[in-house]
């Protein structure tokens, strides 16, 4: 990976803008990634014991102030 130093750019803001651009997604890409994630998630939950298996989990309660320990 090439060394990215602030002196290679006009200003520190240019460096931050470059970083921001690298982490920004357009709406279409974000929707596509979300759909792919949800599809993989569904595969894992639907196929217990398979390569993508996940154990369904959920919260059974919330703290109410009576907890000890």
Automatic annotation (TrEMBL):
UniProt cross-references to SUPFAM superfamilies, sorted A to Z: Actin-like ATPase domain (SSF53067)
One MF annotation (Gene Ontology) recorded for this entry: phosphotransferase activity, alcohol group as acceptor
InterPro entries attached to this UniProt entry: ATPase_NBD, Hexokinase_N
Gene Ontology biological process: carbohydrate metabolic process
Superkingdom of origin: Eukaryota
Domain Hexokinase N-terminal: 19-69
Transmembrane segments: none
Annotated Pfam families: Hexokinase_1
Protein name, entry field: Hexokinase N-terminal domain-containing protein
Lineage of source species: Eukaryota, Fungi, Dikarya, Basidiomycota, Agaricomycotina
């Amino acid at each position: 990976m090439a060394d990215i130093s602030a002196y290679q750019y006009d200003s520190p803001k240019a460096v931050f803008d470059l970083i921001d651009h690298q982490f920004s997604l357009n709406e279409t890409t974000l929707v596509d990634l979300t759909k792919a994630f949800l599809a993989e998630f569904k595969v894992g939950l639907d196929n217990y014991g398979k390569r993508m298996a996940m154990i369904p989990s959920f919260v059974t309660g919330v703290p109410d102030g009576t907890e000890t320990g």
